[in-house]
Design brief:
The chain is an all-alpha fold and about 110 residues long. It is about 75% helix and about 0% strand.
Length: about 110
């Protein structure tokens, strides 16, 4: 058989297309095969938790402490933090502030 440039190009493009189709089918097969695993895993996790409740009782104290700390952080007053601006930005803000209202930067 003689070398044909067009035949070689179409063969290469067809090989690439076949490879794309193959990977797409592999992904679809994997996805279908793993579809039921999430429900199984949740069932196994729930069973594990129900069997080992005695271990979770210790963690309730830790959870209540962290919850109290989060609650105290939510109710705490915000802390005023001074903002240090570069001189260039400070000058720009002062010029825009003079047009509308004075702005305290320092």
């Amino acid at each position: 058989m003689r070398y044909d440039r067009e035949l070689a190009a179409t063969t290469l493009s067809t090989m690439q297309r076949v490879s794309e189709i193959k990977t797409k089918r592999e992904r679809a097969f994997y996805k279908n095969r793993m579809a039921g695993n999430k429900a199984k895993q949740r069932f196994e996790d729930a069973r594990l938790v129900s069997e080992n409740q005695h271990l979770l009782k210790q963690n309730e104290a830790i959870a209540s402490k962290t919850e109290k700390m989060e609650q105290s952080m939510r109710t705490a007053e915000p802390i005023a933090v001074p903002v240090v601006l570069p001189n260039k930005l400070r000058r720009r803000l002062k010029t825009t502030a003079t047009s509308s209202q004075p702005m305290a930067l320092d």
